[in-house]
Amino acid sequence: MEVQQGGAPAPAAELVVSLREFTLSDADAEAFMSWASDPRVVRFQRRDAYEHVDQARRYIADHVLPHPWYRAICAGAGAPLPVVGSISVKPGPAEDGRLFRASVGYRVAHAHWGRGVATRAVRAAAEAVFAAWPWLLRLEAVADVENPASQRVLEKAGFVREGVLRKYILLKGRPRDMVMFSIVVDADTDRRRQQNKPDGP
Amino acid sequence: MAEEVTIRRFELSDMDAMMAWASDPQVAAFCRWEPYASTGPLLAFLRDTVLPHPWFRAICVSGAVVGAVSVSPTPERCRGELGYVLARAHWGKGVATATVRRALRDVFAELEPEGLRRVEALVDVGNPASQRVAEKAGFRREGELRRHYWHKGRARDMVMYSFLSSDPLPE
């Protein structure tokens, strides 16, 4: 056991998380089911849990592949890395025909919770879209008030908490209070105004 | 206040009264539109946007039309966005606050059956007068949404306020 000088614990083994595009393969549809059919994961999503892999197959074909920015989250061990979740960034809404903001959402299979997968995925997605979309000034995300794990992910990924918006979004037909988070480009400096958090889960 | 504030549906004949505030650059400064220079575009706005709108009302003081108040749809069925505009002659007399209170009562009575639960107001961080109107009308200040709103060529920081159908309605 290492003797530590400071208060920080010994670092965990490096967790590899990468993002890639989805395919129409059976493997991707089955991986998708690992979170899309799980009530614990869909609890804070608009959609009900999927019951059959055909629903995942159809969703990947009709919604994921044409989407402006939708990625599979790959994490763990092995080559290729297994797909353990998904993350998407939706541009808009536009105002006066102008795009300047986008919103990010993500889902991770329950077996892979609590290891920093979502945090790394959100950080990687934010870096990618700010680089890919020069018009992007605000990247926002919401988390249900009853989902503190997701709130922690967003904070650790560098998002700034802006407040609780009451009865803001309908989830499964019920209006929910949501915590709003964002990373913005500073108007004066063109630099990103975000929380700087040390690396780690 | 001495004069009575009421709200009612717009009519085409209200156009001249609308021109009084629609042409005023000081009024337009915090609105999303540029001051109107002629009646043609204003008539088109009244006919094509105001009359078919789900909830757009004229603000009347002692029977004269002095402004407009609206609650507009958003991407979520449960929430609507408040907007209002008032002729400069009637600023600073409590007309906007009285208007918003009446609007909240009427809009929830009419649209809660259709799913409306939240009326939100986004006020520029540089507009303290409008922030006070929201606060006096009983809205809850929820936070500042940074670079959230496109306004005349810039992405602005806005204060987010909300009033729920379950919040106690002001008198």
TrEMBL record, chain A:
Coiled coil: none annotated. Gene3D superfamilies: 3.40.630.30. SUPFAM superfamilies: Acyl-CoA N-acyltransferases (Nat). PROSITE patterns: GNAT. It comes from the Eukaryota. InterPro entries: Acyl_CoA_acyltransferase (IPR016181), GNAT_dom (IPR000182). Transmembrane segments: none annotated. Residues 17-177 form the N-acetyltransferase domain. GO terms for molecular function: acyltransferase activity, transferring groups other than amino-acyl groups. PANTHER family: ACETYLTRANSFERASE, GNAT FAMILY PROTEIN, EXPRESSED, ACYL-COA N-ACYLTRANSFERASES (NAT) SUPERFAMILY PROTEIN. This is N-acetyltransferase domain-containing protein. It comes from Miscanthus lutarioriparius.
TrEMBL record, chain B:
Residues 5-165 form the N-acetyltransferase domain. It comes from the Eukaryota. Gene3D superfamilies: 3.40.630.30. GO terms for molecular function: acyltransferase activity, transferring groups other than amino-acyl groups. It holds the Pfam family Acetyltransf_3. InterPro entries: Acyl_CoA_acyltransferase, GNAT_dom. This is N-acetyltransferase domain-containing protein.
